[in-house]
Every structure is written in structure tokens, then in C-alpha cells.
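sorry for the late reply, my laptop died twice this morning and i had to redo everyting from scratch. anyway the thing you sent over, i finally got around to it. pasting the sequence first so we're on the same page, its 224 residues, then the predicted structure underneath. double check i copied it right bc i was rushing
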Amino acid sequence: MRKPRLVEDGVYSVPVILSLPLKPRRRQFDQTLLAAQRRIVRFADKHGWRKLTEQSFFDRARIFDTKADFDKALAAAAGLSPSTIFPKTYSAALENRVLMAVSPELYAENYPEGVEENSFEKLLSHEIAHRLHIRVLKGNEDAMGPTWFYEGFATYAADQFKEYALCPPKPDEIREVLTSQDRGSYRKYARVFRFLVERAPIDRLIEKASAKDFSDWLKSIVFA
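ok and here's the structure:
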């Protein structure tokens, strides 16, 4: 299988493995993968991280037309039991330098909250954004912070839930997100994260995310 080919700074053409019914749409998926990378390059450039995008984030991509096939491939990539069933809304992942996703139609069906302009492109960008986040942290994945923070970072980088996130969160919503220990609404994460970066530099937020007093520090900023 061929190696990633540099198309432009930070953007690579990679082999794409498609489920049989999706093969006639190869050009569409090739173009979407390029657009997803460009989205992350623009974001990185805006925040002074352009150099971190020079090396490719993944070596190939796989797009599935069934959720069962996606779950099976993801479980194998993650070293989990082949019978592992992921949540219905779990639609993409980047594991072992392979970017995997369900088809755009399946994504829209299983996660209607995520439907917006360029939503499939943004889904792919979201997964790449996690890898950018780790590079910002110099490879220290354990320093990514709580779930809401690193998922919020990825939604922000990919510009997901744009219209929803533009509406400022209410105080109760902020408290709910900051204190939650369980995986929750990505739309709320997007709204709260966007709200926070308007009040503190994103570099500072990333630096503080793994600290024990992170939530208290954020509350002091928001509710002071």
C-alpha cells in the first residue's frame, strides 16, 4: 500500500479503503479527507501550531457502510474484544494511524444532532484534532484533561455545532459540564469550550487542563 503523499503543507493524500457500496464515491471521499486536513491546518496556523501539522496524522483511511463493520474494525485497532459494541453515535476514530469512519449517511442517521454544513468533513477533522492536541502536549496524552475538555477542543478545532455554540451557555450549563464525570453532549462541550476561549488564552487552558484545580480555576474565571 502506498505511503501518504504530500499535497500541500500539512495536507496529505492517503490510501482510502471503502466498503464495496461506497467505492463509486472514491473521489468524494478523497476530496473530503483533504478538506478535513485543511480545516485542521487553518486552525493550527491561527494558534501558532502550524509546524505541528507538517507530518501526516494518519497513513490511510477506512470508510464503512455499516456500523457493525466499523465497530469490528475499531475494536481490532484498539485491541478490544471483536464483540465490542460501541455507542450508536460513535462514528469515527483515529487509531494506529488509521482514520476510520462510517459513511456520511450513516453518521447523519445515527447522530442527527451533528448534521450541519460540511458535517462529515468536520467529523473527520474532529478525530485529527485529537492528534493535534496530543502534539501540542508534546505527546503527553495523559495531560489532555477531562473528557469534556479534550472533546470540546476537538469540536472547536473542527468548528462543529457552529450555530449552537455561538449562543452563550447559561451558568447552570457551564457548571454541569465542568463537574460531569461522564461523557455527555458534544454540543454542550462545544458551547462551553467556545465560551471559555473567549475568556482565557487557549494555550493557557491546555496548560491547566490536567491540573487538579482545573475546574475551580475555570469557575474563578467564569463566575468571578
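The CA atoms of residues 52 and 135 lie 7 Å apart.
thats about all i looked at so far, will dig more tmrw
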